[in-house]
Model the fold of this input.
Amino acid sequence: MAVAQLLAVFLADTARSRYGYELMQATRFQSGKLYPILGRLTRSGWLVREREDIDPEQEGRPARYLYRLTEYGTRSARLELAALREKTSVPQLQDLRPWPAGRLT
Amino acid sequence: MMTVWAVALGLLALAALPFRNIITDMCQREAQTRLGQVPVVLLRLAARRVPREWRDDFHAEWLAELSDIRLATSEVPVTGLVRQVLFALSLLVHSRAVAREFTGERLPWIPRPPPRGISMRRALASARRRMARSLRPGLAPASPRISGGGAVSLRWPVALVATAALAAASTFFIMSLTQKGAGPQSPGIPSAAAGTLDPHYLSVNVPVASSELLADDTGPSTARMLTADVEAELKKLAPGRSAGFMMVFAPSPTRDIAQGITAASLVVGILRTNDPEEFKYAVGEGFWTGDSQEITIRVFLLQQPRPGS
Done:
């Protein structure tokens, strides 16, 4: 579920690159939980990790490492999240039918 | 004597009274600086638990994140310090897991041998110590000597026995590791295909650079070309056969290991997604290798041909 939660953050805007602290705030994960998931997704080719192209002196902060969904990752994440939602969804009320009389004896 | 000290301290306190604010301010700044260094030190320790080739990379990333936390919480120093320390502590505890997930390898620096491995490791260490003792002339225990007909030292026979013991212990140790699955882990073969892998593999080289595959604009066309190449090669060399296991070696001319591993893992996914017929049962692993301009794919085939082919 943690991976799904993280993927949902990325899928909110697939073109946007995100950095660790931003993801920690969005998911409420601690760094020790977040980075292994980022590593697994990067290694699987779902995410790309790249160093921010800035001048640290000019910006007044070190360059961040950014993570972005790849095209393959976007496609796979959408499919997997849809499958997960299907598995965990609560059946609609109209789908529920009373058990036939006399069967629960 | 105590009275003298009490009076001296009292006088000192009185003398320091006008400078009270300055001293308090200095103490505050000192405490602030020292406390601010705690997360930095913790991050340095966390980075030291990561393999050498990844250490600087991770350390730079974590320091940048720490700087972001510091900037975001500059108005609330206590909350900021707590968040920074928690961030660094969490990484210190999980740094090996982070490295393992990024590299995909259970590296030798992670001491996670199976229970039997521990005892074998002890046996190995003990045998090694015994051999070292027997080979050290000065420190060796009094060696039995056969008297009469000249003194024959038993040091070398002891060394030979110890070497044999060491070799046996090593063999058991390695066997225990292979049986229990320590060392670099590969995904298992699906149960349907277990034990039916052809020992020979096909090697397909595709002239594609990792960067082309990972780029958003050239990625899809490169992936199509790669799939077509592998499919054509499989059809030509092993028609009607399915892949059981594949190993993908992706280069990175810039020696960017992460890029190479990402590209290799991506190829595994592409082949499994786009070639369901040949790669239906295939599992695979991606590796980084060298700085050439071609991706090498090794395909281990299932021994039985596909039904109906």
Remarks:
- The interface with chain A takes residues 60-65, 67-69, 71-72, 86-88, 90-91, 93-94, 97-104, 214, 216, 219-220, 223, 258, 261-263, 265-266, 268-270, 273, 286 of chain B (CB under 8 Å).
- The first strand of chain B starts at residue 145 and ends at 146.
- Strands of chain B lie at 145-146, 152-153, 197-206, 243-250, 283-288, 295-302.
- Chain B has a mean pLDDT of 74.
